[in-house]
Specification:
Protein name: Lysine-specific metallo-endopeptidase domain-containing protein
Order of helices and strands: EHHHHEEHEEEEHEEHEHHHHH
Strand content: 15-25%
Radius of gyration: 18 Å
Organism: Marilutibacter chinensis
Distance between the termini: 29 Å
Shape: globular
Helix content: 40-55%
InterPro entries: MetalloPept_cat_dom_sf (IPR024079)
Largest sheet: 6 strands, mixed
Length: 243
């Protein structure tokens, strides 16, 4: 089972939010695949027009005027990054082992919704480093991002100076800790929170601004300009909800 809920997270039956987050990330990745670029740029496709508008609002992507919208090289490259990261979000949430639990009461952060912990390679049954396995260790999200950017399906991590090749679906686990604010959020914000946290992990985003609704997210992302928006987790979190 790729998602393992513990304690109160199990009681609250949170799986639907993670299933929805996977579907949202997959849909975003699908629109951004290079083989679907003609569809995305089709001026007569109403759904594509919505996606193009959202890309401009949330990330400052510019589509040139003309019978067929065009992309500059920088924006074209950024769409490739978006595609890889959203596809990686869906894969990690759906096929890696993910332990989901609420933070202990003394660790709850009143200002946070959730946090995704760094992945463990060859974990024990609790998702922790296995002291009996010399090839079990905690990696860094930057190591995962390096593998994603290389387009590899098997991940290679350096451990004690030796490359370790692993299958992410079989050999990686990570934890998502939820806070009280997650419990009190509405359904849409719970989905967004999951995508938000995965963008921190897989795109190294920051928290330049926060939004609680799609309307707020449109405003804050559009107001900050492309460089900041592309580095803001809430822009990544709300975009899939708005296409």
């Amino acid at each position: 089972m790729p998602r393992i809920y513990r304690g109160q997270a199990q009681v609250e039956a949170l799986d639907t939010y993670f299933i929805d987050a996977v579907a949202l990330a997959r849909n975003a990745a699908n629109w951004l695949q290079r083989r679907n670029r003609n569809t995305l740029l089709d001026p007569g496709n109403a759904d594509a027009t919505t996606v193009r508008g959202a890309l401009t609002t949330y990330f400052g992507v510019q589509f040139g005027a003309g019978p067929v919208p065009a992309l500059g090289s920088g924006d074209d490259t950024f769409l490739g990054t978006l595609q890889r990261v959203y596809a990686a979000m869906a894969t990690a949430l759906n096929t890696w082992t993910v332990y989901i639990e609420y933070a202990d009461w003394q660790d709850h952060d009143a200002d946070e919704y959730a946090a995704a912990g760094p992945p463990v390679v060859n974990p024990d049954q609790d998702g922790a480093v296995d002291p009996g396995n010399p090839n079990s260790f905690q990696a860094a999200w930057s190591d995962v991002r390096r593998n994603i950017n290389n387009g590899t399906q098997s991940y290679v991590f350096m451990h004690n100076g030796v490359p370790i090749t692993v299958s992410p679906a079989r050999d990686l686990a990570f934890k998502i800790q939820l806070n009280v604010r997650f419990r009190n959020a509405d359904d849409q914000l719970k989905q967004e929170t999951i995508l938000h946290e995965m963008s921190h992990a897989l795109a190294d985003t920051n928290d330049a601004a926060y939004a609680d609704t799609i309307v707020q997210a449109r405003q804050i992302c559009a107001a900050r300009g492309a460089p900041t928006a592309r580095d803001t987790a809430d822009c990544w979190g709300f975009f899939p909800l708005d296409i």
